[in-house]
Write a structure and sequence with these properties.
This protein is mainly α. The protein contains 18 helices and no strands. Helix 5 (about 90-120) runs antiparallel to helix 7.
Length: about 450
């Protein structure tokens, strides 16, 4: 048995072996991280009321929107850095890293200054549907704190792009696991030493997610990644244009993804009720293991596809996508089983704290499976840099998502289920176009828009 396992992990192309090991270790770490996530969800509900926890989740979704103001620099960096390393040009790689850090630091400094200036004039309580009197000031202060922590986190997280490019995604998952563990420890301390405080809860969450990547950057750029250490003196406008040309397309895609995937909490809070956000989040968290798994594959195989396409190793890319499709079919079966046993799992996990309908669980499952189907083809498209068609499709889907979701929720009286169903409907065109384009690229038949 042990020899069979060893044979599996040591069989195949060097790139494939590296991917297997990193995905395996990442799965273990993600599994441990999920257990921590499952632990602090009921703890959060015990510390905060349903409404306050819903307000925090909704505000977090809105703040996360600002993370996309990097204009796709992180994603553009991953491709350009991968190409530079494949060429063996360390100085070029360091220049790309320096340029990306300088650009992101400038962008988020400006955004943070503007945000602080206008924040206290924004009607957060009204936007989030807060029922409790006097929550405006607390929400506004929390928004500033969360935005500042996000700015630190997002700039410092560029270090993770180096790990992804070197096809060492498991390291990133080690750091993410430590982040969640640190928050769990802080949450337990807060629960046992303080009374209910939305501000304190938000501070603990955002502080941990900002501190860890900052510490990782200081340690690794002074050690193992010293060759790639960023320097403001090395930042170059021409290199920023290289990153930006590809990055702006990634930015458009990520912005569209935000509209589709990150507006649900806001729409549920505004058009249904803030108290309906936690049930949706719980169902999503329960089934998100499949989304997380495919994100792990994307993180590891994106850089691998950059290298393979640069070397025109199309056979490896074909075999990899075929194997990934087989894995996806297996997740469909597992997801069906998880949906079937969900009532018992919810009872064991959350007790009587939340009521989550079977219909909501089914629609969330369909949404996640459809998202993973699209993502498994995107890892090839992202690796080749031929993402213009993908960009157009995501933009159209995002423009339709909010009105379609509101229509289902209000006009058809479907409530929260209608908002989730709106996401499903808008993802269908992408689920058709992405595999067609990948087939054309891997068979060298991409012409016109299919090859851009």
């Amino acid at each position: 048995m042990i020899e069979t396992i060893k044979s599996f992990f040591n069989k195949g192309h060097e790139r494939t072996i590296r991917a297997k090991k990193n995905v395996f270790y990442s799965l273990i770490l993600k599994g441990l991280g999920l257990l921590i996530g499952f632990a602090y969800f009921p703890l959060s509900l015990a510390y905060l009321s349903d409404e306050k926890f819903g307000l925090f989740l909704t505000l977090a979704s809105i703040i996360d929107w600002f993370a996309e103001l990097n204009i796709g620099i992180g994603n553009g960096l991953r491709n350009k850095l991968g190409e530079s390393i494949a060429e063996g040009n360390d100085l070029k790689a360091r220049t790309y890293i320096s340029t990306a850090y300088t650009a992101l630091a400038g962008i988020f400094s400006g955004v943070l200054i503007v945000f602080v200036c206008v924040n206290f004039f924004l009607p957060w309580a009204v936007w989030l549907g807060a029922d409790e009197v006097g929550m405006q000031d607390e929400l506004a202060l929390l928004a500033v704190f969360m935005m500042a922590a996000l700015a630190i986190r997002f700039v410092s997280s560029l270090i993770y792009e180096v790990f992804y490019t070197l096809q060492k995604s498991a390291f990133v998952n080690v750091f993410n696991f430590l982040t969640k563990l640190l928050f769990l420890i802080l949450l337990i301390v807060i629960i046992n030493t303080t009374e209910e405080s939305l501000l304190l809860f938000g501070a603990a969450k955002t502080l941990t997610f900002a501190f860890v990547p900052l510490a990782v950057g200081f340690i690794y750029f002074r050690g193992r990644f010293y060759t790639f250490r960023p320097s403001f003196k090395l930042a170059k406008w021409d290199f920023l244009k290289d990153i930006f040309t590809l990055g702006i397309q990634f930015f458009a895609i990520k912005l569209a993804m935000l509209v589709i995937h990150k507006t649900n909490n806001f729409l549920i809070s505004g058009f249904v009720s803030p108290a309906e956000v936690p049930p949706y989040e719980a169902a999503f968290k329960y089934l998100s293991i499949f989304l997380i798994f495919f994100l792990l594959l994307t993180d590891q195989l994106w850089a691998a596809n950059v290298e393979a396409y640069k070397k025109q190793e199309l056979d490896w890319m074909r075999k990899t996508i075929e194997q990934t499709i087989k894995i996806w079919l297996g997740t469909v079966v597992l997801c069906g089983i998880m949906v079937a046993i969900s009532p018992w799992v919810y009872q064991l996990w959350l007790g009587d704290e939340l009521q989550i309908s079977m219909s909501m669980t089914i629609i969330v499952a369909v949404s996640i499976l459809l998202t993973t189907w699209v993502n498994l083809f995107n890892l090839v498209l992202n690796g080749t840099g031929k993402i213009r068609l993908q960009m157009y499709a995501w933009i159209v889907a995002s423009l339709l998502n909010i009105p379609v979701s509101i229509f289902f929720a209000t006009k058809l009286n479907m409530g929260t289920n209608g908002i989730i169903l709106g996401t499903v409907v808008c993802l269908l065109p992408l689920a058709i176009l992405s595999p067609i384009q990948v087939f054309k690229i891997l068979n060298q038949q991409e012409k016109g828009i299919w090859g851009k």
